[in-house]
Amino acid sequence: MLFDRVVIAGVGLIGGSMALAMKQHSLAREIVGAGRKVENLQLAVELGVIDRYTETIEDEISRADLVVVAVPVDAMERLLKRIAPRLAQNTIVTDVGSVKGAIVELAQRHLGSHFQNFVPGHPVAGTENSGVLAALAELFIAHPIILTPTFQTDSYATQQISKLWKGIGGNVLEMNVEEHDRILAATSHLPHMLAYALVNHLAKQSDSEVFFELAAGGFYDFTRIASSDAVMWRDICLHNRHEIAKDIRSLSKDLEFIAQKIDLGDGAALQQLFERAKNTRSQVGDHRQQRIKTAKE
Amino acid sequence: MLFDRVVIAGVGLIGGSMALAMKQHSLAREIVGAGRKVENLQLAVELGVIDRYTETIEDEISRADLVVVAVPVDAMERLLKRIAPRLAQNTIVTDVGSVKGAIVELAQRHLGSHFQNFVPGHPVAGTENSGVLAALAELFIAHPIILTPTFQTDSYATQQISKLWKGIGGNVLEMNVEEHDRILAATSHLPHMLAYALVNHLAKQSDSEVFFELAAGGFYDFTRIASSDAVMWRDICLHNRHEIAKDIRSLSKDLEFIAQKIDLGDGAALQQLFERAKNTRSQVGDHRQQRIKTAKE
């Protein structure tokens, strides 16, 4: 058994899926859920996601050897303050947040000497749905799991968290905090901003019925991520401000370049741009095939 | 029978699907394919998509009561010049191009008095695949089919083309040429430009392996349309220049607005923007459900 008692703060899609997967792979003897909504915790017990729950997380912390912080970013500070005084010397703490710089800063501020046992993590996995009802033991299989230990992070703690994720099928990558926030801004945060902007852009100049009729096809698929949770994305924006704003402006320059080529009627340049994109995406597709193949083996 | 002899110039995904659907619904007695590649036309006969084919479209035109022009935009001028002298007085001509202003201009220039029998059309349907092998009789079911007759277009010709599309399951909308090019720029052309720009943006600043690993998830799905045919999209850009360039610049302004709110840390404004997009998309989703329901009935 990798862990004896695991406390999961926030039993939603990610926390719940981790619990299910850890159970399935016998990586934890007991999993205790903690959270603000009792009905949700009761549901999680009924669904067999967690073994039991607590409304007073403090009481469980001293006896836990792993605490998984899976609450929204804006609830994290309060939670860290609450658990910090009760942490045992060897208790490992990890999180699952989509931004890392801001969270590492919070952990450093509030965990004191326990900060060395804090392993910042980000499973790049999810579905359109949220909540414990959507939890799946298979959610992380073949998905990238990014760990961003700092120079202060205990290497044993990082190893244990790495074992946990590998044990439930994840593809663990280590990088530094800044690299994470930069790469995620480009591969995830920027696409979300584009999808939100595009939907609003169209809604503004809509011809109502005709617009809806025409938007219901490919456009609807393209903008799927604009249905993501608005509060979560507000928080991601606020906690990765510099990188996201920079990427938005950089992409705007690329768009202006395309607009200029269109103005000039420069077909050769446009074709070249489009072909380059098509080829790059095809390479990503090959990588994805490889990943799916590896996952099946 | 709606039509006796139909000539389809360009037996690819769209032309082939129209042929299959017209046969299935007994809307044409005989369907003759025309095109530049004999192997493709032979294949179309073997697949039962067309009844027979010709390499010299001129010889068939005088005996056709409908000519469907389903060739790429940049091949259209040559084709119109070729068929114009042979058109009978009552032969209806229609097209399936994604831009309408440029095509209407070409038709006006080359069809002479037959321009009154030209019904500009655009079936908003397709798959990632192209070519006659991908043709499907069901391709147009519940999809918007836009007709953009001009004030010169004979109303009987428009009625016949409308009957054709309704007969094979399409949802026919009429609008003027300018409206078409403006709305399609926003709902289809702009999203393609964004997808192309985004893929190139990322490829530029890639950390190779890490980038590919992280791009293989949601990003891959989001950028699906960046795998569309580069030549086709070059031509769409060149033939709807004004609208596409305008939309790109207008969206850039919206993106700058988001970047400014991020700079300011204005969470309330960001949340509002994201919620508005989420709600609009959900309305589009309701419309789509309705469309799917109608199609099943």
What would you say this structure looks like, in words?
The structure is a homodimer of 297-residue chains. Chain A is built from 12 helices and 9 strands. In chain A, strand 1, helix 1 and strand 2 form a beta-alpha-beta unit. In chain A, the strands form 2 sheets. In chain A, strands 3-2-1-4-5-6 form a 6-stranded parallel sheet. In chain A, helix 4 runs parallel beside helix 5 and helix 7 crosses helix 11. Chain A is α/β, with parallel strands linked by helices. In chain A, 55% of the residues lie in helices and 13% in strands. The first copy, chain A, folds into 2 domains: 173 residues, 3-Layer(aba) Sandwich (Rossmann fold); 86 residues, 6-phosphogluconate dehydrogenase C-terminal fold (Orthogonal Bundle), CATH 1.10.3660. At the A-B interface, helix 7, helix 8, helix 9, helix 10 and helix 11 of A face helix 7, helix 8, helix 9, helix 10 and helix 11 of B.
Based on Cα principal axes, name the global outline of chain A: elongated
Task: Quickly name the level 1 CATH class of the largest domain in chain A.
Answer: Alpha Beta
Oligomer: homodimer
Strand content of chain A: 5-15%
Q: Count structural domains of chain A.
A: 2
Structural class of chain A: alpha/beta
CATH architectural grouping of the largest domain in chain A: 3-Layer(aba) Sandwich
In whole angstroms, how far apart are the ends of chain A? 24 Å
Nearest-angstrom radius of gyration of chain A? 21 Å
Let me know the average pLDDT of chain A. Answer: 92
Count of individual beta strands of chain A = 9
Q: What is the CATH topology of the largest domain in chain A?
A: Rossmann fold
Uncertain stretches of chain A: none
Largest sheet of chain A: 6 strands, parallel
